[in-house]
Amino acid sequence: MRLVIQRVSSASVRVEGATVGAIGRGLLVLAGVEKGDGMEKVRAAAEKLAGLRVFEDEAGKMNLDTAAASGAFLVVSQFTLAGSLARGRRPSFDNAAPPEEAAPLVEALVEELRGRGFRVETGRFRAYMEVSLVNDGPVTFVAEF
Predict the structure, then answer these.
(1) Residues 19-50, buried b or exposed e (16+ Cβ, 10 A)?
(2) Angle CA(90)–CA(105)–CA(21) in degrees, nearest 5?
(3) Catalytic-labelled residue, pool 55, 73, 79, 118
(4) Active-site annotation holds for 79
């Protein structure tokens, strides 16, 4: 499972012109599920996201997690994160999990975060989505589980 995590002032996702998920301060999480991923990786990702201290405290240091910053999550599935650019000029998606495997794992990540008390908004799996964000900092991390 690969995640791109962006600290945002605001973020939203639209499908067919309608906003389906939006947050103010928080973390935009683009999630790519790879073949072989399972619940152990989902739990590890949720644990990392819940405790990730990337918000600034009064001293200007990244010392606050999302809960302490009164933030939320916007989780958007993005199968292209499982793509490889290793050969040629066209990405290979051979390692991307098929939709019937990936969808339940993305939903499980959302539910793991909600179970920890977070407000979590989402995109729509397998839909063409337009994601807008104001990257705060900018602060962006890539994580693999």
Answers:
(1) ebbebebbbbbbbbbbeebeeebbeebbeebb
(2) 85
(3) 79
(4) yes
Q: Please list, in sequence order, all residues whose beta carbon lies within 8 angstroms of the beta carbon of residue 47, skipping any fewer than 6 positions away.
A: none
Catalytic residue (one of 19, 80, 93, 140):
80
Residue 135's pLDDT band (cuts 50, 70, 90): very high
Look-up of token digits 């339940």: 104
Model confidence over 57-95: pLDDT tens digits?
Answer: 999 999 999 999 999 999 999 999 999 999 999 999 999
| pTM confidence score | 0.95
Amino acid at 117: G
Query: Active site includes 80?
Result: yes
Which residue of the set 6, 66, 78, 122 is catalytic? 78
Q: DSSP secondary-structure letter at 112? A: H
Q: Active site includes 78? A: yes
Q: Which has the closest alpha carbon to 101: 73, 123, 124, 125?
A: 125
Query: How far, in Å, CA of 126 to CA of 103, rounded?
Result: 9
